[in-house]
Amino acid sequence: MSKIIVLMGAPGAGKGTQARLLQERLHLPQVSTGDMFRSLAETQTPLAEEVRAIQQGGRLIPDELVIRVVEDRTAKEDCHKGYILDGFPRTAAQARMLEELAARQQKKLSRILIDVALNLLEKRMTGRRSCPVCGEIYNVYFRPAKVDNQCDRHPEARLTQRADDTQEKVRVRLETYKRETAPLLDYYQRTGRLQRVDGTRSPEEIYSDIEEILNNEVVRTELGESTNAD
């Protein structure tokens, strides 16, 4: 049976890296709610018109409409063998809707949290610096340049910090994540539907754990066991 992989984790946990690896190695599309809504802005379908009217009115898009957009996108041929969800679900209500969608699409759900302590994530993001010439990424805490604020390969270039990597902005992002995502994680945890991987290791080690989870779920499915505690 095809699979829907829900990757979860705080900003800076490495979801994007793992989504890219899964996409490359499992040949599954990464489905981003942000990308979907941006694409809708360029179309003239009834669904797009409905979304535009809500956005122009300054209102939040209701869960029922978000799931319609997700269902519309994931009905396309490239998603028939499964897909990776990015940015959805964000609430317990959306999680329940996703479970109903998975049943309609006859797909199994895998819910995986890339687990990293928030204080470590703060250092990951506030410590990031990049070279404006070659794009090399450094971190003042974990991978500093040989000479402070200078790229190892381009010493004439001063390293720069992203505007949203300041301590104040990072703390706001992490607090928002904690506040908005905690109920969803609790929902998955209480119902035995959440798999955790240690996100403090290398990308390949994290991917290896994710791959093992997915393979074990396939084996259990083949043995007739349910991987969803529904």
Characterize the structure shown.
This protein has helices spanning 15-26, 33-40, 46-56, 63-74, 92-105, 118-126, 167-190, 203-222; strands at 3-8, 30-32, 82-86, 108-115, 128-130, 137-139, 195-198. The radius of gyration is 20 Å and the shape is globular. A hairpin with a 6-residue loop joins β5 and β6 (137-139). By secondary structure, it is α/β, with parallel strands linked by helices. The model has no long low-confidence stretch (mean pLDDT 90). α4 runs parallel beside α5 and α6 packs antiparallel against α7. The longest helix is centred in the last third of the chain and has 24 residues, at 167-190. It has a domain at 3-116 and 179-222: 3-Layer(aba) Sandwich (Rossmann fold). It contains eight helices and seven strands, in the order βαβαααβαβαββαβα. The strands form two sheets. The chain has a five-stranded parallel beta sheet with strand order 2-3-1-4-7, with helices on both faces.
